[in-house]
Amino acid sequence: MDHDNFITLPYKLERSAPPFEENDIKSPENLFRHILKKYTKHDDHMFDPFAGLGTSLFVAEELNRIPFGIEAEQQKYQWVAGQLENWTHLVNDDAANLAKYDFPKMDLILTSPPYMLRNHKWNPVFGGDPKYAGYDKYLKRMGVIFGKAAPIMKKNAPLIIQVDNLTHGKIFTPLARDIANAINKNFIQTGETIVQWKIIKGEAKPKEAHTQFLIFKKR
Questions:
Q1: 160 — phi, psi (to 5°)?
Q2: How far is the C-alpha of 16 from the C-alpha of 35, rounded, in Å?
Q3: Helix %, strand %, coil % for the chain, to 5?
């Protein structure tokens, strides 16, 4: 399949975040809607190892795809499961434990993992546990998690990761490159799409003018 190099999508947050979170941690539904329409078909299975607030899962159900996912934070898990039609397909656990579960083979893995700045110690994939502090451990865990996900993918299924490079003061974190390098034992990158956000009057504005999603296939 040919991949788009550049697209423009309207920036609109269609579902409100729960009271314990802010809307700025959500990705617009339009982004996942575009990906699911392009890379899957009716009744395909989609998996998100970092389900978060469930945006990819809700959009998958809207488009008659069958969503599966894992979310480590119990509060987020309960909020998403309470609104998801296929709520039994969502698991409350560390994504590194996904082999414990009887997931079917997936037609697509689609996710936006928790981000981390390279100069920070607090590691979001370990809930800030100081034993696992640091960007190097964050990237190593990304490699472990996506390595565990590879066996549940169908032969030609793509892995698509939405990820932003980060700038904080004078510190730049090339997160897209670093995640791609962290998972290259199991995956080969086959494409990258830059998404320019179109601002809609009266709607929330994005923190950045664009985002990107990286496309991989299994080795």
A1: -125, 125
A2: 21
A3: 30, 25, 40
Class of domain 6-11+28-218: alpha beta
Q: What's the pLDDT band for 69 if we cut at 50, 70, 90?
A: very high
Verdict on whether the full-model pTM lies above 0.85: yes
Strand partners, 90: 69
Do the Cβ atoms of 11 and 198 come closer than 8 Å? yes
Q: Please write the tens of the pLDDT for every residue from 91-146.
A: 999 999 999 999 999 999 999 999 999 999 999 999 999 999 999 999 999 999 99
SS3 217: strand
Rounded-to-integer distance, Cα 4 and Cα 103, Å? 30
DSSP 132-181: G-SHHHHHHHHHHHHHHHGGGB-TT--EEEE---EEETTEEE-HHHHHHH
| Residue 33 neighbours by CB under 8 Å, 6+ apart | 59, 62, 63
Q: Which amino acid would we find at residue 139? A: L
Closest among 31, 67, 27, 71 to 49, alpha carbons compared: 71
